Amino acid sequence: MKVNKVIPLIRIFDEAKATEFYVNWLGFTVDWTHEFGSNSPLYLQVSKDEIILHLTEHHGDCTPGSKVFIDCVGLTEYHAELIEKNYRFNYPGLEEAPWNAITMEVIDPFGNKLLFSESKE
Question: Strand ranges (DSSP E) for the chain?
Answer without folding.
Answer: 9-11, 29-34, 43-48, 51-56, 67-71, 95-97, 101-107, 113-119
